Amino acid sequence: MGGKESSTCPSASRSSTTVPVTHNVRHYRLERPKGYRFTPGQATEVSIDKEGWQDKKRPFTFTGLPEDDTLEFTIKSYFDHSGVTNQLWSLGAGDRLLLRDVWGTIQYRGTGTFIAGGAGVTPFIAILRHLNATGKIGGNRLIVSNQTEKDIILREEFEAMKGLEVVWTVTADPKSRLEQERIDGDFLKRHVPDFGGNFYLCGPDDMVKDLRSLLDEAGADVANVTWEK
Known about the structure:
Region (Disordered): 1-22
Protein name: Flavodoxin reductase
GO molecular function: oxidoreductase activity
Strand order of the largest sheet: 4-3-6-1-2-5
Number of strands: 11
Radius of gyration: 18 Å
CATH topology of the largest domain: Rossmann fold
Oligomer: single chain
Shape: globular
CATH superfamily of the largest domain: Nucleotide-binding domain of ferredoxin-NADP reductase (FNR) module
Domain FAD-binding FR-type: 8-109
Strand content: 25-35%
Order of helices and strands: EEEEEHEEHEHEHEHE
Distance between the termini: 7 Å
Structural class: alpha/beta
InterPro entries: FAD-bd_FR_type (IPR017927), FNR_nucleotide-bd (IPR039261), MRET (IPR050415), OxRdtase_FAD/NAD-bd (IPR001433), Riboflavin_synthase-like_b-brl (IPR017938)
Number of domains: 2
CATH architecture of the largest domain: 3-Layer(aba) Sandwich
Helix content: 10-25%
């Protein structure tokens, strides 16, 4: 996820709850600092308020609704190295995180197709939740590729959003009944009836680069394609 220069005076926010989402993803819900605001799709840089971790900043997207009393992040932890996300997994109620300035990532520009790889779905969570809460979810489409079914983030919640078309595909789960293909040009042509709409992309850099090329080849207008830069 891209970023920008962040505030030199971070706001401290105390963790209220952590909620499991998948085997390696959790919701982290925090006290909202006074006057701290964001719009769906925006992010901030976060560090852990512990000795040795305050300067280790990582960008995370807000996944709660902007009017909620608390702030929420939905974060995948990587246990193969001792980094910030691994350290976050050990936190609980009462631990503190440092939040910096809010900055824009993916902003909603109108009805379209959201395409994500794995944890790349997180910038779309607040956007789709907000559209669902305001009765504007209809006509949007969510396509997500994961390795296995157990990796799917918020599957039940997305599938319960009436009016949102959801397509899951897995690439390393031969027993799954879901689609088992990588998202290529043929896949897009089967699942996207109109390339004249908006597209929102998030995932590994190589995947996003490939998707941009595929959409261009399919006739999508580059001006209608939004991705994390």
